[in-house]
Specification:
The protein has 232 residues and is an alpha/beta fold. The protein is built from seven helices and ten strands. It has one domain: 3-Layer(aba) Sandwich (Rossmann fold). A hairpin with a 2-residue loop joins strand 9 and strand 10. The longest helix is centred in the last third of the chain and has 18 residues.
């Protein structure tokens, strides 16, 4: 099953009187269950592409489909709803709310989902804090946690709403080597056990080694790809 389809996408930014092409005629199909890395140096366009897939930005030309839904046809409110229902996000800067506890940070996106009762929210938060090994830190605030622990909170928050797709923008960039390796193994385990699709924007060679598909981007264009068949 296809979870992401990008068709002839351009992204152009205007700086004063100049136009800057961040992405040029991008075509990409991502199957459900993949652990995919979009690799490239800083300024290559990989984060821009991730933002388009994540409905944070919209293409100048072309179409981005999430499942069967064409994001170019949706209003900002409809895109926000699609993000809440379908997507989870993990950022290199963690993006946790400093005044909230670990529990509250994980629960916060669920408060926007009216289909979840208080009991269901609590069950989901507890489950994913257990998954990331942070149940005993539920009452801690972000400034009481290490960088690796904060990234684990971000992973739990991304997964709590049962997204079909998790987008991770340089998730190991602010972590030491050992912690980054641990975070990657955790995400790979979630991918294999729960079938959650992960797409990374990265220049971390460890992510590329662990990915079952690597797409390279340079100067806004997809340039090459190495594919390893998914086990099973």
């Amino acid at each position: 099953m296809t979870i992401v389809r990008v068709e002839h996408v351009d992204k152009i930014y205007r700086l004063d009187e100049q136009e800057v092409a961040a992405l040029k005629d991008i075509n990409l199909i991502v199957a459900a269950g993949r652990f995919l890395a979009i690799a490239g140096p800083s300024g290559s366009g990989k984060s821009t592409l991730l933002n388009l897939i994540g409905c944070i930005d919209t293409p100048t030309r072309g179409h981005v489909f999430i499942g069967t839904e064409d994001t170019s046809l949706k209003s900002p409110d409809q895109l926000a709803d699609l993000r809440a229902r379908t997507l989870g996000f993990i950022f290199q800067t963690f993006n946790l709310l400093p005044v909230l506890s670990t529990w509250e940070n994980v629960e916060y996106p669920l408060l926007q989902r009216k289909e979840f009762s208080r009991k269901e929210r609590a069950e989901r938060v507890q489950h994913y804090l257990n998954v990331v090994g942070l149940a005993k830190y539920a009452k801690h605030r972000p400034n009481q946690l290490s960088g690796g622990q904060r990234q684990r909170v971000a992973i739990a928050r991304a997964l709590a709403g049962s997204p079909t797709l998790v987008l991770a923008d340089e998730p190991t960039a602010n972590l030491d080597s050992k912690t980054g390796e641990s975070i990657l193994r955790l995400m790979k385990q979630i991918n294999e056990i729960e079938g959650t699709t992960f797409i990374f924007s990265t220049h971390d060679f460890r992510i590329m080694q662990m990915a079952d598909r690597v797409v390279s981007i340079s100067d806004g264009e997809l340039v090459k790809e190495a594919v390893t068949p998914v086990a099973g």
